[in-house]
């Protein structure tokens, strides 16, 4: 006999166990797009306690729709090994690899969670916690509350990653609310420039940096913060920057 | 050197290749929720040409949010083998298995597409094609057009599956627009009854039927069409009905 | 030193403890307006396990705004003892007692919760559970999810009270989804008639009944279901019907 | 016999009596959240003529939803005596006290109004009155008018308290419309910094000040105006700052 | 010296005096369009206590915009004397008289109020009061409250006039909520037919009737309730029906 | 020297001249989609006084977007001569002709207006005029007024054509507001059936009929009114039915 | 026999005659609130060709709702003669005169139009015409077009009056789009200060000035442009400033 | 027999062929208003590969509605030859030519596409591509995606024309995202001034310039970027500037 209340309790208790366990993290990632998911996968593989917070019900960011709703993605040669790490089906066209975007994004999320990364969907980061001039955690809230006056909660993290795309939302909040300088040429958010795919892909991995003590940028947020060009309709740099930020933080946590 | 236009062309051409290839299907599934994805997986494994059409950008239906946004799902013993088929991580609590909902839904979608099922996201089914008193295909359109007067296109399918949940949208359109009788006790849509998890799970697999020549129902749509109770916060029946509809159609296509 | 994560955990754990504890209730009330709050107070005073579910963030129903935003309420002589039970300030004008509406509604909620009634705000009842032709619980969900496809959870209750006002939402769902007959003259929802304060106040307490096994109506829902007139801008009947439904259920639970 | 028009008149007349009486106040508080309600309680206890104006139908601000809709609040040791003043039920966990948020907020409002504070819900403060370089009252209007061009009315007050939370709406309007300097380090609104609960709680009571002749800030508005950090999910400072602003104004009015 | 609070009090007190005075009326008119305003004028001239309730801030109904925003109106010969009663400027073209619509509608409202009719703008009629099978008053509320749960107030009237145009809102509510028969051929609302100006103008004055004890219809509501054709872009019948309903009620009140 | 007011006057006067001239028509077409435009072209070529009324700013109906925003249209062999009449560029694929949809729709509108048909954009038909049991004209209004209470104007026409697509808006209004029987099998609107392109194209020209004295249907409205299947993504039948209705009316007007 | 099309033509032709006649004005007033209507009345009385343009369907600005929807207005002694000029009913309270707001605003509009002022409702001023560094007319458009890309028309005027209230919309557009200096202390718009009724009323008439060649400000726009305080809930200054601007322009036009 | 899927394939394949072919252009025009369409026509006539991208379903910009929805346009003598090039019907009034606006805009689009220009409707330009300090293409996306996170695609063009009207959207994006100087007096966008039709028409053709390497402005965008006055309700300058930009680019491409 199925008991509805027993099932209800199992759901609530197991979620709460996760929420309690992940309230004090090695790494908190904001944004479950391709770069954030890739970072989560490699961090989880290295046995770090990592969680992603994403405002949407269904994570994945801008990867679902391919280019202009044509749900295919393209990856260049030097990121092909990441497709292999995630067992993604692809077809080769010269130096480019074409994959299905729904297949690719679900593979990233499936493998990241398979390895132990936790994804909190429907939860956004309203703000950060700053202790002694270092980002030390996130102020989180359900995204569905809209304009309702509902207070947030907080979680701690040794490192925070802003993987919110070209909006770079976490960094924007950090800069807007505090008198601080980022680790960028001008100390501010430089802003994304117009598209130049070749330049953009060549600098994105370099732009993956700790822009203020305790917080890194990755993916499109990295180029936006450092004033590099917008990326073209190609995903290699996104994936590589996700792996780069994971490697960098794994190194520091050791 | 990355060439933006070359990348653009690869995306467009490969999407169009898919669209052309999947315009004449063995099975067209409407709705990429848990039941539709499960069906697609087993159909693809059996080498059937199968595609899912889903109005949302990010498929998965109601599975992302677990129960009340607590992102866990529960599956009972008799559906546990499906969790294993999809390599989903779970924890056992007596006769129940608890899994992470984001992990589970991305696993369903990843493995279905890995096996060759094609998912067309952002595309809904406006209507069906009826030839000689048999559903013979779908009238499809981009969901993002909203109220804009944009005409649809059409695809053929040997079988259509309505996996749109308790709205049973395809069946509703079929009944509303044509003078037909369904293969239900009254010939009409019976409507979902209030919750009774035990009864609901016990009948859902039986309700998976060809309700009109060429079209099956599965998942919550099955119980809604046959006037069975609403299901509780448990996913076994959803997954089993997905497998059932696949098995049934595979048998007929042989 | 204040520890943000410690505080976060206290909030989450204590809420979850409540949610677990109140998943199996003596009485589940839907709607935290004047009638529902009054019922909850008297049930809690009698040591029944009672919880109210209300879709709004800030419970109280239509009592905050008095009449036409003029935040005063009027109570007639025969309900005056309820004002006294709740220590509400009032001024007497002949047979009428005038009180501040904000003061009154917060008194109802304060005293009900003081006595141990639990209020779950932001949670609505999507549906009921029916076992063996008896309402046995509620299907609940966050109200803030709007159109997002998020599944509900369920709780059990020995008795459910529909205190949702003249919409009588729970009864409407019960009738719409199941082939059942209510304990009313026609077996259906009769619908509220136009205003006639005198008649309305005289019948409301009589209308407080178990309209289907396991579910009672109270307050405006009672008059709406039994086809009585709309009440005038006076609250005595609302409060008295809340006490009546509590008394009736206490008697049955004994 | 109940007479609908008699009841109507009692409501209208008693509301108007209040509106006339409270048009010339000792203290006008804008915002009926935890800090404003606490201030109103202690001011009313000291027999000051005090009214709160709040845009919402159902006052209480951000206190209803606890943290992230989990409706519990936490208060630290040094504010515990305020819980006792309001007869709020709580449970102790080390140095923290956990209470139900619905119970707590209705207790604040109930006891404040019990002592004689008047709450005008659905009414917001569009602007202030300035006479001889001193804030001398409020320009008030119904909040429900939306974009309709409806003129406001005005009330006088010896002191105004901005208790509108981190938006500090009254101070913002004061600064935006007049060439004045606030009593802050820079003379302007400093803006809330990111979260640091420990620092925030330690400075909030100090930040309760008369920032311009005739107007005080309290609660989150105090930290926002003085550039202190955002508070964590804990309510001690909110309550203490409400008591502080009351004590300070009582002293001046003597 | 101007005293803001003194002015505030004068506004509030004088409005309340009106509201009290007009809570018990000879005639309550719902809808301040051309027909309702005309009726109010002639009723006030005959010294009847009459008030109009209109949901909009700025009354006048559909008369402001002339035809298709070309702000002119046309009146035929047999209604010309009403233009004269209201001192409206016009120009003659054969049997037709053309006037400015803004000029005309403000003249109707100005002269009606000059004669003592009271207009309550922003207030709609939610329902009627029925005592002993006779409409005995209105249940009124601010229109600006939108979806907020705010209770109404009530007023008494010897006669109610539905002048809400082709929606005939009051009659619709009356019929929907009560099991009654109207004084029409079928006992129900017949519904407006397509346009036929000649027929419509010839029957509208006949359709001005007491359709249920205590309530009359006038203007477009009269034709809608009696199933007559829609009127053309001409206002004679509107004005004449307003005068007719006034004359009829004056006769009965004598 | 350019004189702004002189230009203003030329625009207003010439528009008004058209509006006066076309207030009494041979044929009034509602809906400027492909079928309505085709009809207008052939009627204008035959020197009939014809005007189209369309609610949108930019006429053309559903033809702009091709199929699913892929802006191409397909026409079958038997309608190819209409492409030629309109000098539309196309490419041949077997029995099908493919043309650009933007090119095609602008050609229809350009040539129809070149021949003297007048298009009133932004104007919809709210209702019809009925005199002696015959549709004798339209009740028209600006579509941009939304919910504003603005009265319509009227125009006469010897024949009205409903070319509003599968909504068949004019016929719907005609049936809803009047007790009449259409010239269809059941006397009512039959409703569009699901797609069957072959059947749909074969019956559409037959369905072009005078369904009630004075009013014809064409295009998708014809199939919707007669209960025929939905048309596939092909335009031959649309164009042919437009020509058919023109021919039929020209014959009757002679 | 009534002829719908004849009536249609009378409406269109007479409106167009007005539009042509008033395309070249002595005075164009933007905003038909109390100040603009008063100005129009005195200008028309002096036989000037004057028109008001107002975005709303029903003109009158913020005067309909009295204070906070209590539909009464107050006028002080020195403006009492204007009430008399408009034959407005009032009651005296010391130095204040209280009138009904609906009665007052319709009187202003009725008498202004009676004297020959033309009101174009539903038409706003998008921009001004500037010739040789002088405002020479208005760029006007229907307000109902919303976001639709529809071009405006233009009219000439010897003088323009910005009577748009504290938004001072025309002056804002003038300053934003051109490099000009206003005739104010700083050459810019100073902005309205917080309320001080006494000061506001004493300066408003002085603030009525030609702020740039060809354009005057009046009413609340005058105080907003000159940085004076917001007015209290009293209308004397509004009416007097309307008369002042009329007198000033009449003098110049002589 | 009509085959729905065959027709579907023809539409998709032919659209894709266009999209592939026009991904590398001589000239990319953003905005299909009168100036952009005119430019496209003359470029296509000169055998350049040219495409227009427009966010709307139905292109034509602000030309459909004439002036204030009165659908006529006026053209002055010196642009009359362009009306002739497009075979547009007109009537002469002194130095002005009046044409129907629907006829005119469809003629521009029809003839431009007839000559081989491709119009991509429903597609907007999100950004530009910049290579070596030269605009080298566009970043394009479907306009219907609204807020959905869907990535764009890119196309190359030897020259880009901003024909987006007075918003000059492409230039605004170019300036906002990159640190560049335009070829204008100040190096920035100067902004449109108030209306002065005579001046505006005399400078618009001069303002047609390459404002940054690879990108031209035309139509209202030209005057907006160069700080010239707004144009009056006349279209000559629009058409002439479209021809000018075509001539200029043809010269450079040779």
Automatic annotation (TrEMBL), chains A, B, C, D, E, F, G, H:
<dbReference type="InterPro" id="IPR002922">
    <property type="entry name" value="Thi4_fam"/>
</dbReference>
<dbReference type="GO" id="GO:0016763">
    <property type="term" value="F:pentosyltransferase activity"/>
</dbReference>
<dbReference type="InterPro" id="IPR022828">
    <property type="entry name" value="Thi4_prok"/>
</dbReference>
<keyword id="KW-0808">Transferase</keyword>
<feature type="binding site">
    <location>
        <position position="230"/>
    </location>
    <ligand>
        <name>glycine</name>
    </ligand>
</feature>
<keyword id="KW-0520">NAD</keyword>
<feature type="binding site" description="in other chain">
    <location>
        <position position="62"/>
    </location>
    <ligand>
        <name>NAD(+)</name>
    </ligand>
</feature>
<protein>
    <recommendedName>
        <fullName>Thiamine thiazole synthase</fullName>
        <ecNumber>2.4.2.59</ecNumber>
    </recommendedName>
</protein>
<dbReference type="InterPro" id="IPR036188">
    <property type="entry name" value="FAD/NAD-bd_sf"/>
</dbReference>
<dbReference type="GO" id="GO:0009228">
    <property type="term" value="P:thiamine biosynthetic process"/>
</dbReference>
<dbReference type="Pfam" id="PF01946">
    <property type="entry name" value="Thi4"/>
</dbReference>
<feature type="binding site">
    <location>
        <position position="151"/>
    </location>
    <ligand>
        <name>NAD(+)</name>
    </ligand>
</feature>
<keyword id="KW-0784">Thiamine biosynthesis</keyword>
<feature type="binding site" description="in other chain">
    <location>
        <position position="220"/>
    </location>
    <ligand>
        <name>NAD(+)</name>
    </ligand>
</feature>
<dbReference type="GO" id="GO:0005506">
    <property type="term" value="F:iron ion binding"/>
</dbReference>
<keyword id="KW-0479">Metal-binding</keyword>
<dbReference type="GO" id="GO:0052837">
    <property type="term" value="P:thiazole biosynthetic process"/>
</dbReference>
<feature type="binding site" description="in other chain">
    <location>
        <position position="35"/>
    </location>
    <ligand>
        <name>NAD(+)</name>
    </ligand>
</feature>
<feature type="binding site">
    <location>
        <position position="151"/>
    </location>
    <ligand>
        <name>Fe cation</name>
    </ligand>
</feature>
<feature type="binding site" description="in other chain">
    <location>
        <position position="166"/>
    </location>
    <ligand>
        <name>Fe cation</name>
    </ligand>
</feature>
<dbReference type="GO" id="GO:0009229">
    <property type="term" value="P:thiamine diphosphate biosynthetic process"/>
</dbReference>
<comment type="pathway">
    <text>Cofactor biosynthesis; thiamine diphosphate biosynthesis.</text>
</comment>
<comment type="function">
    <text>Involved in the biosynthesis of the thiazole moiety of thiamine. Catalyzes the conversion of NAD and glycine to adenosine diphosphate 5-(2-hydroxyethyl)-4-methylthiazole-2-carboxylate (ADT), an adenylated thiazole intermediate, using free sulfide as a source of sulfur.</text>
</comment>
<comment type="subunit">
    <text>Homooctamer; tetramer of dimers.</text>
</comment>
<keyword id="KW-0408">Iron</keyword>
<comment type="similarity">
    <text>Belongs to the THI4 family.</text>
</comment>
């Amino acid at each position: 006999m199925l008991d509805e209340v027993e099932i209800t309790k199992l759901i609530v208790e197991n979620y709460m166990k996760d929420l309690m366990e992940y309230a004090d993290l090695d790494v908190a990632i904001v944004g479950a797009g391709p770069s954030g998911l890739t970072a989560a996968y490699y961090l989880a593989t290295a046995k770090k306690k990592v969680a992603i917070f994403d405002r949407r019900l269904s994570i994945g960011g801008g990867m679902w729709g391919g280019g202009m709703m044509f749900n295919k993605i393209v990856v260049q040669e030097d990121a092909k090994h990441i497709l292999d790490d995630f067992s993604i089906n692809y077809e080769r066209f010269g130096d480019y690899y074409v994959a299905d975007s729904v297949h690719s994004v679900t593979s990233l999320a499936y493998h990241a969670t398979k390895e132990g990364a936790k994804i909190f969907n429907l939860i956004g980061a309203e703000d950060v916690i700053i202790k002694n001039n270092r980002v030390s955690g996130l102020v989180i809230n359900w995204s569905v509350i809209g304009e309702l006056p509902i207070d947030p909660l907080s979680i701690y993290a040794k490192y925070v990653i802003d993987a919110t795309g070209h909006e770079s939302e976490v960094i924007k909040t950090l800069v807007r609310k505090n008198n601080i300088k980022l680790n960028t040429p001008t100390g501010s958010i430089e802003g994304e420039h117009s598209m130049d795919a070749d330049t953009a892909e060549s600098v994105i991995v370099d732009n993956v940096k700790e822009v203020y003590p305790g917080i890194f940028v990755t993916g499109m947020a990295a180029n936006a913060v450092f004033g590099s060009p917008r990326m073209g309709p190609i995903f290699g740099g996104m994936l590589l920057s996700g792996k780069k930020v994971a490697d960098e933080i794994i190194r520091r946590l050791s």
